[in-house]
Amino acid sequence: MTVQPTRPQRLFALGALTALTALAGCFQLARPTPPVEEYVLGGDPKAVATAPARDAAAVTLGLRRVDLAPYLATTAIVVRRGSRVTALEFRRWGEDPIAGVMRALARALGSAPSVLAVDVAPWPAQAQHDYLIQWHISHLEGVAAEAPATTTGEVQVIASWEIIRSIDGVIVARGESDRRESGWTVGDYAALVRGIDAGLTGLAGDVSACLVRVVAAAPAPDAAASGRPVRCGVR
After folding, report:
1. Predicted pLDDT of residue 12
2. Hey, what long-range contacts does 208-212 have (CB within 8 A, 24 or more apart)?
3. Which of 3, 38, 118, 229 has its CA 20 to 30 A from that of 133?
4. What is the dihedral of CA 106, 111, 113, 119, to 10 degrees?
5. Are β-strands 84-93 and 76-81 bridged in parallel, bridged antiparallel, or unpaired?
6. Each residue of 83-129: pLDDT tens digit?
7. Would you put residue 76 in left (φ > 0), alpha (ψ -120 to 50) or beta?
């Protein structure tokens, strides 16, 4: 004699089958979460640790807080394809990006023979500097063509900046820097960070070269006195 399952038994079996099916689907859809990789600027092992010989006219500098484009003010490293910007979820800066950028710039400037010492904002109220530097960074990212098949691109560090005479607040020089490094392999984020480091070093070099021109015109640069700051070219 065949025993027919009761209605509660049929409902229980159906519910169990549905739960098992859903659970199997979860296992099929699950993907391993990639580890988060964090990077910091200024990690170039080739950086010179010894203090360089200083010029007789070397100056002291105060670096104002960097003005970073809003889309870059994130701990996620940025890659741009055409006009599409991607903030990478699992590739991040290990600190506030502005803090990292300022440290890298200060380190690079501090190695210039024309610079005696560098302070980074905020500095003590009693600190005195010959000049203040203000940077406006508009690009700090990896760039590739929009086509998904594109595997190579470049690293861009682009900024404008001002050199300000500390004693009276006069802008004595303005400049623009366009630092691009081609040959970046899309997906190689360690190389991207190294390229950004190199771009920031170049940016600091542009400013230190402009400082030499400004100091050579001291103590009263004609351009500053006439309200026309020295212009330093794009490189």
Report:
1. 44
2. 208/109, 208/112, 208/114, 208/115, 210/163, 210/173, 210/175, 211/59, 211/112, 211/114, 211/115, 211/131, 211/163, 211/173, 212/114
3. 38
4. 30
5. antiparallel
6. 899 988 889 999 999 999 999 999 999 999 999 999 999 999 889 99
7. beta
Residue 161, token pair as written in the block: 């900046």
Q: Distance between CA atoms of 197 and 88, rounded to whole angstroms?
A: 18
Task: Go through the domains of the chain in sequence order and give each one's CATH number.
Answer: 40-232 (3.40.50.10610)
Q: State the residue for tokens 């010492």.
A: 117
* Cis ω before 219 (30° cut-off from 0): yes
Determine the Cα–Cα distance for residues 177 and 137; give it in Å rounded to an integer: 9
Side-chain-side CA neighbours of residue 47 (13 Å) = 19
CA distance 230 to 224: 7
